[in-house]
Amino acid sequence: MNISHLRRQAESGNVVAQSVLGICYLDGIEVEADYAEAYRLLRAAAEQGASRAMTGLARMYVRGLGIPRDMNEAIRLYDAAAKAGEFLAQVELARIYSRGLGVTANPAMALQWYSAAAAQDRTVPDCEELQEAKAYIASSR
Q1: 3-class SS at 52?
Q2: In terms of C-beta density within 10 A (0-12 exposed, 13-18 middle, 19 or more buried), how is residue 74 classed?
Q3: What distance separates the 2 farthest-apart alpha carbons in the chain?
Q4: Is-contact 105 136, C-beta < 8 A?
Q5: What's the pTM?
Q6: Does position 106 have pLDDT exceeding 90, yes or no?
Q7: Distance (Å, rounded) from C-alpha 104 to C-alpha 127?
Q8: Which of 13, 20, 42, 137 can pair with 57 through a Cys bridge, CB separation 3.0 to 4.6 Å?
Q9: pLDDT tens digits, residue range 12-68?
Q10: End-to-end CA distance of the chain, in Å?
């Protein structure tokens, strides 16, 4: 990955570059983790409607990574990203509702979001999150 090229694109307002570079700074991928820079880039991309950026930003709010922990803002961002079809946002919302993390547990909402995630089984690689969604659905029957 060419980080210098991504930086130039991100600074010129390219939403995809902002999202990718923001995730790189969030997770320390080919750069040193920098939550302030991750927040700046992800916020800029999320404001332009980038669902992957919304998901990364929500993760920062859930865990308090460089910003105050804010479950309401995390849920708002996950919800917007999940409605846009973002697989990981759907799984995270399902987890929040199934475990009552920052909200009252709501098995029906958990099932709704796990079902949305599982419906993407042909477009996402088989992974723990997909298996988790399928297991939750099976246990709900």
Answers
A1: helix
A2: buried
A3: 50
A4: no
A5: 0.94
A6: yes
A7: 27
A8: 42
A9: 999 999 999 999 999 999 999 999 999 999 999 999 999 999 999 999 999 999 999
A10: 44
